[in-house]
Design the sequence.
């Protein structure tokens, strides 16, 4: 079983514990009752192709760690099922169940930022200048995600019917402020911390969603942010990103 990549493209193979051992190690987790693993020796991903969800699938594709993806259907309220809540009591995707966690024991984990940091530390990849990278991950978690998401609600979803446009305009203003922070930083850097990292994996699915799924590029005058646009284009051209945007 592939368990640790000590450098990009250089992996160490640990002796597999076998299918039965993997199944036994995961069977204690109730989430496997609803989503039985076909490959219990692999990391299990519970997700959807949302900006937060694809962060983890992109990361897994980038580092080459074998995984099995399970769709958590919001249409069926899977996120509120007892099985999923046993994995993430906050009823949000993504979440993972790693049969080869610390000390070889299974690890259940939720929150996309925490998962990115865990996978980077597990494999020794995509975490250059550790604390600077993590600060930009936190910037996305605390700023870009919530603000872009609120803009999406007021621009594309139910909030667009509100006659009072002040809530929408408040999030347009905050989104532009955040894009300006990114643009100023990327004017001096190729990626968020110069080399590609989990900071980029955290941020650019949300930027892509803003101008794509939310169709808010014109609203926020996205063309003003040329350096953000440049990096988004480079990000989307990565083969692992292409694969990760549509999880297996």
Sequence:
């Amino acid at each position: 079983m592939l368990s640790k990549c000590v450098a990009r493209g250089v992996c160490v193979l640990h002796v597999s514990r076998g299918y039965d051992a993997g199944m036994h190690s995961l069977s204690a987790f109730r989430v496997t009752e609803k989503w039985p693993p076909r490959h219990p020796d692999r990391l299990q991903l519970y997700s959807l192709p949302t900006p937060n969800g694809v962060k983890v699938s992109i990361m897994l594709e980038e580092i080459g760690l074998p995984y099995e993806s399970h769709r958590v259907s919001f249409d069926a309220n899977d996120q509120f099922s007892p099985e999923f809540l046993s994995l993430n009591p906050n009823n949000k995707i993504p979440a993972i169940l790693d049969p080869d966690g610390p000390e070889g024991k299974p690890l259940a984990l939720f929150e996309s930022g925490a998962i990115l940091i865990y996978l980077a530390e597990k494999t020794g990849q995509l975490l250059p200048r550790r604390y600077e990278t993590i600060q930009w991950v936190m910037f996305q978690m605390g700023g870009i995600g919530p603000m872009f998401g609120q803009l999406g609600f007021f621009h594309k979803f139910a909030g667009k019917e509100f006659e009072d446009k002040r809530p929408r305009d408040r999030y347009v203003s905050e989104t532009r402020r955040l894009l300006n922070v990114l643009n100023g930083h990327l004017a001096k850097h190729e990626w968020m911390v110069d080399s590609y990292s989990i900071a980029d994996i955290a941020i650019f699915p949300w930027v892509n969603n803003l101008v794509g799924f939310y169709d808010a590029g014109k609203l926020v005058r996205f063309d003003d942010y040329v350096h953000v646009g440049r990096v988004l284009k480079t990000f989307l051209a990565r083969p692992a990103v292409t694969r990760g945007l549509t999880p297996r």
Summary: The mean pLDDT is 92.
